[in-house]
Amino acid sequence: MKNLSLLFFCLLCVACSQTPQIEHDFVEPTVIYNDIESRMPGSLMILNHYAIWSDPLSADDQVHVINLQTNQEIGKFLDIGNGPNEFVTPDYTLTSNNNVIVYDTSQDKMSFYSIDSLEKQKYPLVMTIKAETQSYTRIIDTQGQNFVKFKPDNKYPFLYGQQPFGKCLFEKEEEFNNRFDVLQGNIAYNRDNQTFIYSAFDFPYIAAYKKEEQSDNFRLLWERKGDIDYYVSEGKMILDRTRMGAMELALTKDYIVTVQRDYQTDPTDESRVGWDFSMLPQTLFVYDYQSNLKRIIDFKMPILRIGSDIKNNTIYAIVVNPDFCLVKYDILQ
Questions:
Q1: What's the burial of 185, exposed, middle or buried (CB within 10 Å: 0-12/13-18/19+)?
Q2: Confidence band (pLDDT; 50, 70, 90) for 172?
């Protein structure tokens, strides 16, 4: 019996020694831009040495572009309306050649805007095309106008060209008819390692897919799925709204970064947050591309949006400090 107890103790020690260590860090990001005047910035994207943020509650000049070398705004564009160069419900993605793509989720329309032209104080519109964008909640450019589109209520929620992919996240999904609402989330793509990431808003779930060489197929690499508390009533899935998943998603050279609340240290009831920006999460969760959670970084200030460039490991964020401002932090610090 004594030998068995000793063996159990040794096995326990080995198991504990192999448990991945997660760093918990309190950091002070660098403030680089203080003039974000908005009731609620809608998105943040980073491309080369530019930061692009949107102001969805403004009818004029929704897109703002900041030169990160000078930390100055170089221009803004995009009005809301039904005119030829206007959008009703715009959303945004980036190309690899300094273009912002604007697509409309209410009508099949897509426009390309040149940041280089904006830098030269020229009208930035390059072209507008008819494209299938209506009803897709997210569209991202993988390379050369090859898009991945996200429609949560499709059987396979992601579409690359004509090739659908993705998987059911719940058993008997056919039993509830509000998949469009339940499965909302963010998508991102790292062109360098050809990895596609999906993270859900309302429950803890992240999945990675790998694009196969010389093919339009994406295969599932891994998924992280936490405890999800829900029930189905009258054909609808009712989620526990006191906790959420990843509210923001960004990809750097070596890491997947999300805005998630660290419920072990911050047990805020998410259903009570609403428009109170002071109650937003203050932590970034940093995963490697093999799904391992490596760090939890506490900015000690509420985080609304994040963005990054896959060429480095710097994360940018729009935080509340006490007004909206743009900050940056090198994850390798």
A1: buried
A2: confident
CA distance 312 to 324: 24
- Which candidate, 27, 35, 51, 34, places its Cα nearest to that of 316? 51
What is the reported pTM?
0.92
**Contact status, residue 45 vs residue 66, Cβ threshold 8 Å:** no
- Percent of the chain's residues with pLDDT above 90: 85
Give the alpha-carbon dihedral of 165, 99, 112, 304, to 10 degrees. 70
Helix (H, G, I), strand (E, B) or coil at 7: helix
Instruction: Indicate whether 293 pLDDT > 70.
Output: yes
The first and second tokens of residue 107, run together, are 């009508």
d(CA 168, CA 280): 29
Residue-averaged pLDDT of the chain: 92
Give the residue from 314, 315, 316, 280 showing the smallest Cα distance to 300.
Answer: 280
* Token duo for residue 326: 């743009």
- DSSP state for residue 279 in the 8-state scheme: G
Note the Cα 38 to chain centre separation in Å.
20
Q: What are phi and psi of 287, to 5 degrees?
A: -110, 150
Cα–Cα dist 120/128, whole Å: 21
State yes or no: cis peptide before 152, omega within 30 of 0: no
Q: Whole-angstrom Cα distance, residue 39 to residue 37?
A: 7
pLDDT reported for residue 19: 54
Query: Looking at residues 277-296, what average pLDDT do you find?
Result: 98
